[in-house]
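Before surveying the methods themselves, it helps to consider a single example record, giving the amino acid sequence and backbone structure tokens:
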Amino acid sequence: MTRNGQRLLLLIDDEPAQRRLVAALAARGGWRAIFATDGEMGVATLGTQDGMRLDAILLDHQSPDTDGTPIIAALRERRPALPILMLTANGSVGHAVAAMRAGATDFLVKPLAPERLLAALEAAVGGLAAGELRPLTEKIPALLGFDEIVGSAPDFRTALAIAAKAARARVPVLIEGESGVGKEVVAEAIHAASPRAKKPMVSVNCGTIPANLVESELFGHEKGAFTGAFERKIGRLQQADGGTLFLDEIGEMPLQAQAKLLQLLQTGEVHPVGARHARVVDVRVIAATNRRLCDEVEAGRFRADLHDRLTVVPVTIPPLRERAGDIPALTRHLLARIAQQPGLRALGVTDDALQLLADYDWPGNVRQLQNALFRAAVLCDANALTRDDFPQIASLGARRNATAQAAIAGGVTLFRADGNMRPLEDIEADVIRLAIGHYRGRMTEVARRLGIGRSTLYRKLGELGIDSAAA
């Protein structure tokens, strides 16, 4: 870590534009990047003063013909404990297996959204890969029908029942839930159970598209509609004609694009950028969000009329920690899918490992569980996974328990020196300060863990006179 408290990232990449982009994204999370143009220079950097202070390495792998393992192995030999993340646009599960066996901590796929890069870096330095990312393990086929989705918890089955009933209608569906709970899996099941199943399902992650390109991406554009529009582009909505459009992270959609989406839902018409006339399409919209859209409406970041249109059928997927009883069956199901990937094999799992997994609270939900199982399966030489194959989970679980015990022992003071209760707003202020410190100032996580919207959290900070940098 650098003297000013920033974490230090070594970025190995031969493309200057890509280096500048990643460095700018990392800077949003308090990281400072230093650069190497190739693996040999990267290894040499480890022996410098900056190299000795490194917190993580990000290796941009460009070639589809090699897996980058020699570079990873050389880096790992010099710095055994340093997190190494590989970034690629041409990855395969086989490349992931080879990279992880060579010593990679995580494997990320382009396009790289800012919050996912930061979550990956945060998770890696915390000792666990795969935080909020869409890592390569998500390339494992996940198209399931409702009967194949694993889970027996009442709230989860209720959500699936609502989704299954909605599948037969044309109405929009809004799927809400924390990152990693399986919102896209449910969306795919809705499409597969609908009369549109034989038509395309087109997925768009609104959080990965630059704000100035969202309209063009969704609605298309005509040649010459704006600078750089050298040819006509068919938007995702027209590509999904007759089928389903899945809009993930819809809370990230700019307001102008929200207005055009509302028009589509009202009229069935798409108006490409620069076009003189609208085009009629037949599209069923399924949206997903890890935010509380009602809070986004209150804050003025999401249109109330669009919110009303999308919430005709709301489906809320509970987090994995609220259905821990599903973890053993879900673990076996995920291991069976992982075993079908190149370079991997069928593995059992022992009772002590299942107990460890069931006791962990899984802040990254099913996605994080799948990533942990994938990593364990890659590195396992035995025929079954044991507790020892999940050292990161065991370590993080122990740390969380220690933190919880400390909170219980020290706690927030409820009484004044005279024996009377403290005012509620004083107690609330202490709880918020405690949460800000515990989650290292990550305000989205603070709001989520406190069960309130970000706009509500920031309003309380102002009312209670709390600095968001409080620890």
User: Anything to note?
Assistant: The longest helix spans residues 391-410. Confidence is low (pLDDT under 50) at residues 129-139, 406-410.
